[in-house]
Amino acid sequence: MSEPADAVPGVIEIRDLHKSFGLHEVLRGIDFHVGAGEVVCVIGPSGSGKSTLLRCVNLLEEPSSGTVRVAGAEITDPEVDIDAVRRRIGMVFQSFNLFPHLTALGNVTIAQRKVLRRDRGAADRTAREVLERVGLGDKFGSYPAQLSGGQQQRVAIARALAMGPEVMLFDEPTSALDPELVGDVLGVMRELAEEGMTMLVVTHEMSFAREVADRVVFMDGGVVVEEGPPERVIADPRHERTRAFLSRVLDPAAARVGEAGPPSP
Ligand SMILES: Nc1ncnc2c1ncn2[C@@H]1O[C@H](COP(=O)(O)OP(=O)(O)OP(=O)(O)O)[C@@H](O)[C@H]1O
Ligand SMILES: [Mg+2]
Questions:
Q1: How far does residue 139's CA lie from ligand 1's centre (Å)?
Q2: Which of 17, 44, 96, 137 is the most exposed place for a label (fewest CB within 10 A)?
Q3: Cβ–ligand 1 contact at 21 (below 6 Å)
C-alpha cells in the first residue's frame, strides 16, 4: 500500500479479516490500520459489520480468518496472552455497563485493583485524576442512578482511561444519549484526540467525524467501501453507496449550513 502511515507499524493492523456467524459472512475481507495517535472514525449502515470489526480487535469475537495485530501483538495467534493485550485496549460501548452499587470512584477503581493489582491509594489517585479529566471532579461519590446518561458515559470513559490504554475503541458512545448530553461526551473524546490518544470510533456523529477524525472509513456489507480524510469522504464521496448513506444520515439542510456558516436570522 502507498499510504505513508503504513511505513510505521500501526497500533491496530488488520489483514484480510473475515468473520462469519454460521453461514452469514459479516466481515468479508477487511484490511485496515490505525497508526499511533491517529483518530479513525468508522461509519456505515446498520448491520454493515462495524461493531463486529471492533469486537474482533479485542477478541470479544473470534475472527474466522485473517490477522489482527494490536500494539505489536498478534491477537489471532492462539498462543497470545489475550488478557495482557486487552489491558492495553480501552473499550467504550453504547451502554455504559457501570456497577450500580458502586460510586463513580468505585467504578473507576475496581478494574485497576482487580486486573492491574494496584493498591487502594494508587487506584484512588488515578481514578480521581481521570474523573477530573472527563469533567466529573464533583461526582466522585455519586452512584450511576444519580448521574445523567452523559455523566455515566464519561465515567465509563474514565474507567477505560484509568487502565492506561494504548488505544481506545468507541462503539457509538453517544447514540443512547439524549441529544443535549451528546456534546459533553464528544467534548471529552475530542480532548482525548487532541492529547494524542489513538482512537477507533464507530459513530453516526458526522460533525465529530468531520472535525476530529484523521481518517474516515465507510463500511457497507462487511467490506471497506472507501476511506480517506473526512473532508474528502464526507464532502466528496467517490462511491455511490457512500453517497447514498451520507445523504440519509446528513440532514441536507444542515449540511448546507455546515458549509456556508449559520443562516442569518
Ligand atoms: N453474535 C452474533 N451472532 C449472529 N449474528 C450476528 C452476531 N453479531 C452480529 N451479527 C450479525 O452481523 C451483522 C453485522 O452486525 P454488527 O453489529 O457488526 O453491525 P453494525 O454495523 O455494528 O450495525 P449497527 O449500526 O446497527 O450497530 C448483522 O447482520 C448482525 O445481525
Ligand atoms: Mg453496531
A1: 35
A2: 137
A3: yes
HSE value, Cβ hemisphere, 13 Å, CA-based, for 238: 11
pLDDT in tens, 229-244: 999 999 999 999 999 9
Closest ligand to the CA of 62: 1
As a whole number of angstroms, the distance between CA 106 and CA 56 comes to 29
Q: Is 99 in the pocket of ligand 1 (CB under 6 A)?
A: no
Q: To the nearest 10°, report the CA torsion of 13, 16, 20, 24.
A: 130
Kindly state the cell numbers that stand for 253: 439542510
159 CB-near residues (< 8 Å, 6+ apart) = 98, 107, 108, 111, 130
The H or E element containing residue 203 is none
Question: How far from chain centre, in Å, is Cα 148?
Answer: 21
Q: Which amino acid is at 43?
A: I
- What's the pLDDT tens digit per position in 135-154? 999 999 999 999 999 999 99
Query: In angstroms, what is the span from residue 141 Cα to ligand 1's centroid?
Result: 36
Q: Which three cell numbers, joined as nine digits, stand for 128?
A: 480521581
Give the predicted TM-score (pTM) of the model.
0.91
Nearest atom in ligand 1 to 222's CA:
14
Instruction: Compute the distance between CA of residue 256 and CA of residue 58 in angstroms, rounded to an integer.
Output: 38
Contact 213, 39 (CB under 8 A): yes
Packed helices 149-161 and 179-194: angle between N→C axes, nearest 10 degrees: 20
User: How many whole angstroms from 43 Cα to the centroid of ligand 1?
Assistant: 14
